[in-house]
Model the fold of this input.
Amino acid sequence: MKNPTQMRPNLMDRMPIERRLRRRLRNAPLGECLIFEQFLELAKQGRRAAGYYEQMSHIISCPACRRAYLGLRVILQAQRPSLARWLSRLATPRLPQWALATGFAGVVFAFAVWSFYPKQDKNTLIAANLPAQQREEIPQLPPSPPNEPPPPPPPPPPPPPPPPPTQPPPTQPPPTQPPPTQPPPTQPPERPPLQQELAQVGNLISRGAEALSRTLASLAQGRAVRGGQDERGSQQIRILQPDLRESDLLEDTTPTLQWVPVAGATKYIVVLRQRDTGETLLEEELPATQTQFQLRALAAEGEYELLLSAPRGEHSTLKSTLQFRVMSDAERADLQWARQNATQAPLVAGLIFYQLKRYQEALDALERAQRKYPNDEEISRALNNLRART
Done:
């Protein structure tokens, strides 16, 4: 029978905590855990790292270090550029890669040889490649013995006899017919001067050909009426600018109002209204020493009424009223075009001047058009009527 003291170690070995401790000691990792610098050197240099085998033995036996090492390798591979990865793969090429590269190089070399190889002229004919019908027409000489001289060439065939002279049958003269009468060539009618200039101008102006034709016809018939305003009486203030005696159509959107000073005036009052609605746009009181006033920017195509009054104390107040309209952007562009092309297209420019109420410029342009087209009666009548109304 065994001693109880001898049985105690076997009982202790069989306890669960002893078995777990023994199992843990049996599966303990080899060596100490690695630090970050060792992981980084091992992931970058691989087998060239110092202590590679000892460190890898520990990584294999330690789950925590193994996870850290594999994670660091994945991070470094993601940071590595794609070209480096491609070169690393190219360093150990496989057979399909070499086969594809060799086949592509062979195709390029064959294409280069075919491109630089001299081509045979298509015009040269070889008897062996002629059709069968042409090969029969070529005479074939019998082969000559090696020691005998070649036979002389056959004599040329005699020329064929000339054909017998044939007398032509008597020819009768064809019946004489009168030549067909052709009408004389007619020259195309010359276009009127206005159409000629409109064809040269094209779409450079916004005013149509029909409107210009009606304006020329009205001027030629004397039915066009000149616009503008007459100068006021002596009891009113004399306006110097803007000058509306010729036209009430202003080109400038910021006109300057200038007048002759009034004797005894204590002040001046300037009122600007919109003519269609009567709305007051501006009302200014100026000192008696001021004789001009700059109006603010006016709207294009706007119709306005300007009232200038001069109170004189005990005497009656003098007043002057101006009514005018501002050009639109299209009218201003047409006026600028007419001034630039009054020499090349004087008739079109003169009609545009007349439509925009620039009568002196219209008169000068129509005189230039009469010198350019001296035989046109319509231009002459229009010029005479415009001179009578200017």
User: Anything to note?
Assistant: Confidence is low (pLDDT under 50) at residues 124-142, 230-234.
